[in-house]
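Reopening closed ticket. The problem is back. First fold of the pair:
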Amino acid sequence: MIESLVEKQRNFFLSGKTKDVKFRKIYLKKLRKAIIDYEDDVCTALYNDFKKPKFEAMASETQFALSELNHAIENIEEWSGPKRVSSTWVNFPSADYIYSQPYGNTLIIAPWNYPFLLIMSPLIGALAAGNTAVVKPSELTPNTSQVIENIIKTVFDEEYVCAVQGGVDISQKLLSNKWDYIFFTGSTKVGKIVYKSAAEHLTPVTLELGGKNPCIVDESALVQIAAKRIAWGKFLNAGQTCIAPDYILVHKNVKEKLVNALKKSITGFFGENIESSTDFARITTQAHYENLKSMLRDEEILFGGDFNDDTLFLSPTLVNEPTLNSKIMEGEIFGPLLPIISYETEKDISRLISNYDKPLALYVFSKKKKFQEKIIDQYSFGGGTINDTVIQITNSQLPFGGIGSSGVGHYQGKHSFDIFSHKKAIIKKGYWPELPLRYAPYNIPLQFVKKLKYLFR
């Protein structure tokens, strides 16, 4: 079945229909209409899968996707056209261009934490660039995955775009096929498997993975505002956000003040009885819930630590000074647990951050511009924000992606179009003048050859 689907899509791409920008735009508009029509169904599915609040479902999934769609529809003609670049003297006279052309048949594999957005966002880029697509929604959010399949079937013939449901075995079968491009969002562990599968066919990839994202709060920070913004970014989607702050590094002189402000912010967001709040999501899977609970063993809890095994509820929890070899500090937490570690010097910060691979995000709360710039320059990470959290993803002009173990490549807005496009270099050369210097026999002095470097630019 999968092999025949891949072949069907390959033949459709070879028909040339997707290279027509008008064709692409028509289907982007159809997709936009379908998302609008199905928005309530998507929100209901997200709630049924892991009690995602409707506000969060709309703000971080459906409306985010619609914003991406609008941006692509408005700019697709400009993005798709040839871009002229300056030519070199050595090729005079010539006109030099970069042509953006689709790769062909693409595979998009999405995770369970933002199961709708992280299918739609890369799909928009793939279609805008003129590719076909097979999308694999997460089997761990079955309600949302079914709505995604319904939307895809409403808009597209399967030879153009198709949703394939299933678990790990289906993902393996999909990856065993030859694709022209693979886009994967998920864990670093699975990302390595995807990368290895892609390497068998030399298939280019984008891998959006994760990391242990530090959040630094220095003595100069406006602590009350910092606490509010950290709590928002951390506990959005119950902490199941790849760019959420993973742990706080706070200067010892403001630690107590920050902890108190965090407690106040959490209670202000969700009330005294957080479990009854309609604004706080649940952990998506049983396995992940059990893993998160195990991270709290033998730790000092400053706030929270409440759970309900029947509903996979785990409250926002502040953990005091865990050791670097503790389970909670082993790797990415990906849940509503927030370790708070104090520091005294910048060397302490370096020692702590350098203990981990390059993170997907880093956050700094400080009024000191030199300190801000030093952190940005000193550490390698995907992207970040000064004096806020998570919002770096909200600007479509900015690329979103990781580095090292936190990801390969970046996307969003035009960057999504670009990753799904091969950039073809074309020089259109005139017939006159025809200089004999480049042809054998080479009779020109070698001293003149040494001057050619000034002509190749």
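Second fold of the pair, where the issue appears:
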Amino acid sequence: MDWIRDHAAETWLIAAVVLGALELASTDLILLMLAGGALIGMVVALTGGPFILQLLAALAVAVGLLAVVRPGMVKRLHAGPELKIGPEALIGKQGLILEPTESAAPGRVKIGGEVWSARPYDEDDRLETGDHVEIVAIRGGIALVVRSQHPVTE
């Protein structure tokens, strides 16, 4: 025990390294936050602070990291891009009207190289060949479209 007291900074550093290595196996970010607290304990030991101050500083920083930093990190790590597949992936894409379309008579629209049946989203609208549209919904096999405010050439 005398060695630990005489080499407090080294002991805190060893604890931080061990906790950091164990974090690689757990991947919960809890041990990493404790390692951060141990590093602060080492800093206090290097400045000559008494052991109780080292321990309180290490605990305060570890708890603070667990309460403030870890939740944001976990949220970012678990959040990923939303994967849209099938017809839902077409919503928001631009298209080009190939055949005139109105609510009563669906026409055709080219969306990213594919040809789909299309109807105007607004029942009173009529879209002509060559109109640039945006897909707002897919109902069955029919794309519901609105005129695009910002046409994109395909």
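Update: turned out to be a display glitch only; the data is intact. Helices lie at 2-6, 8-26, 30-46, 51-78. The two ends are 74 Å apart (CA to CA). Please close again.
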